[in-house]
Amino acid sequence: MVNKSFLKEKRLALGLTMLDVAKRVGVSEATISRWESGDIDNMKRDKIALLAKALEISPLLIVGIDETENQKNSNNSLPLLTTKDERDIARDLEKILFNLESDTGLAFYEGEPMSDESKEVLRISLENSMRLAKQMAKKKYTPKKYRK
């Protein structure tokens, strides 16, 4: 799933102990040790998101997908997003998340509010989907002579 030594190297580079990371992710120190050693392969999605945030890396790296390598190897790679595109996505994402916070929004399930971990996973998923949609639209609607 993931290059386990990468997790440990990143943690140490940030000056974090296993206990620091465990507290941020909401698991035991032993679980962090088993993730780093490769004893545990299947991590829950919410824990992947929290671990990625704690180690300041992309969740894709944790599941073993190198984003830059993927883009280089793809003949049909999607165009890069501009600073304006990034700002537009951030603005739209904030609007969506704000609207979800109401009592009738999706942030409530059977009358109970979503946990912070679930909200973070939803935010990451929405952001990735919005990025992909923007890139696909740019590829589809940019004339070939203007593509880089």
Would you give an account of this structure?
This protein is mainly α and 148 residues long. It folds into two domains: 4-66, Orthogonal Bundle (434 Repressor (Amino-terminal Domain)); 78-146. It is built from eight helices and two strands. The protein has helices at 4-13, 18-25, 29-37, 45-55, 59-62, 67-73, 83-100, 116-141, and strands spanning 108-109, 112-113. The protein has a two-stranded antiparallel ribbon. Helix 2 (18-25) crosses helix 3 (29-37). Mean pLDDT is 80; it is low at 70-75.
Shape: globular
Q: What is the CA-based Rg, rounded?
A: 18 Å
Number of strands: 2
Order of helices and strands: HHHHHHHEEH
User: What kind of sheet is the major sheet?
Assistant: 2 strands, antiparallel
Tell me the distance between the termini. Answer: 33 Å
**Overall residue-averaged pLDDT value:** 80
Report the structural category: mainly alpha
What helical percentage do the residues reach?
55-70%
Q: Strand percentage, roughly?
A: under 5%
